[in-house]
Amino acid sequence: MLDVNAARKDFPILKREMAGGRPLVYLDNSATTQKPQQVIDAMSSYYRTSNSNVHRSAHTLAEEATIGFEESREKIRNWFGAGESRVVFTSGTTEAINLVAQSWAKVNLNEGDVVVLTEMEHHADIVPWQMLTSEIGVELRWVPFDLETFELDMGAYEVAVQGASLVGAVHTSNVLGVRNPVEQMVELAHQAGAKVLIDAAQAAPHDRIGFDSLGADFLALSAHKMGGPTGIGVLLINEVAFQQMQPFMGGGDMIREVHFDYSTYQENEHRFEAGTPRIAEAIGWGAAIDWLAKWNVESIHEHGLELARFTADSLRSIPGMRVFGRQADGDGAVVSFLHDTMHANDLAVMLDAQGFAVRTGHHCAQPLLRRFDIAATNRASFWLYNTLEEASAFVEATRDICQRYS
Ligand SMILES: Cc1ncc(COP(=O)(O)O)c(C=O)c1O
After folding, report:
1. Quick one: CATH architecture of 4-30+296-405?
2. What is the predicted pLDDT for the residue at 344?
3. Domain boundaries in the chain?
4. What is the DSSP string of 130-159?
5. Could you tell me if residue 88 is left (phi over 0), alpha (psi between -120 and 50 degrees) or otherwise beta?
6. Average predicted confidence (pLDDT) for the chain
7. Tell me, what's the pLDDT at 116?
8. To bridge 172 with a disulfide, which of 1, 137, 332, 387 should be the other Cys (CB 3.0-4.6 Å)?
């Protein structure tokens, strides 16, 4: 059992009072999670005691910074089961996916080669591929999902991967919370000779993904969705794919030698990390992983799903309310909903006035929303510090607003 009250104590922001002295009820965890004191302390301690650049100088501070930075890389490698693979720091999931597009796909694909995407993708896994259609003429194939069950059409997927070079698939949808059958998707793609990139931004906070055992070629995620700081993420890359990549950003730290007429590059992960990296952020992320390791990730998952199920079922009982998602066993703790007469933004503003923070809009997944013929939803998303009392208060506030104003 997850000790939610003990977890809450580590998050100073949860003590914040909102308008009218109401407590903050933070239900926007899919956008970003709050940070435990341990992460804030680790970053502040680095700046107070060891601030220096990494991989460069021989002085004590530089050595401490380098050790802290590289230790975090190893923590991330261990946490995500990537012992056989490469861990390249990026600014987040978005940059990680762009790195695959620019450093792998642009180097290895040609005009007419096929990239398969699902209709559930976040814009971060759509726009880089559209850019590549104009740059080198790759063709995009879309795998639909069922509007009633919210499940990917695996029959269509199996057809789409034939002759494809790459699949880009979201592990867990940030709008629907649906966890896709990524194991089966990797297997089918590999049988067809395609590489696979998994967008694990929403899976990372509640799922111990084992990258090597999953067998995907690339996996992208962000620290800020799992208690870590903003501005940092990783691309995990298997060795074969890593050897097929060429850097698209040049500069300091990624080189071995630079001459007036040519340069040679590092052979390890630094090859793709040009310039001064995000040192405090890496150290903060390492602290977030140490902190998460205190909890049982399966319990975090079960707890979030319990809150999501309660919320989805309760919202469905509000007249005129539509809930998008199924809250099945492996799914994320996400509930997207839309009232048929109440504007999503108006509802969010009224909820905010009572201390409830929910996301509103297209969730960076406009094509997905268009499949439902809608432009926006409200979204409540949970993490380990949310309580059933918060979920219940949120549902009652939503019910009350809808009754009064719709
Ligand atoms: C499924 C998914 N993919 C990609 C991203 C982009 O992550 P970031 O903005 O941290 O790069 C997000 C962020 O919400 C997401 O939910």
Report:
1. Alpha-Beta Complex (3.90)
2. 96
3. 4-30+296-405, 40-292
4. HHHHHHH--EEEEE-B-TTT--B-HHHHHH
5. beta
6. 97
7. 98
8. 332
Residues of the chain with confidence (pLDDT) below 70: none
Fold match, 4-30+296-405 / 40-292: no
Determine the Cα–Cα distance for residues 224 and 12; give it in Å rounded to an integer: 16
In the prediction, which pLDDT does 1 show?
Answer: 81
What's the CATH class of domain 40-292? alpha beta
Q: Looking at 364, 372, 387, 393, which residue is catalytic?
A: 364
Give the contacts of 289 (CB within 8 A, at least 6 positions apart): 72, 75, 76, 79, 228
Question: Residue 251 in contact with residue 276, Cβ under 8 Å?
Answer: no
Q: Give, for ligand 1, the residue of 28, 89, 97, 122 to mutate: max count of ligand atoms closer than 8 Å to Cβ.
A: 122
Q: What is the pLDDT of residue 57?
A: 84
CB crowding 302-311: b at 16 or more within 10 Å, else e: bbbbbbbbbb
Q: How far is the CA of 269 from the centre of ligand 1 (A)?
A: 22
CA 220 to chain centre: 7
Rounded to the nearest angstrom, the gap between the alpha carbon of residue 405 and the centroid of all alpha carbons in its chain is 35
Give the CA angle between residues 22, 23, 25 to the nearest 5°.
Answer: 120
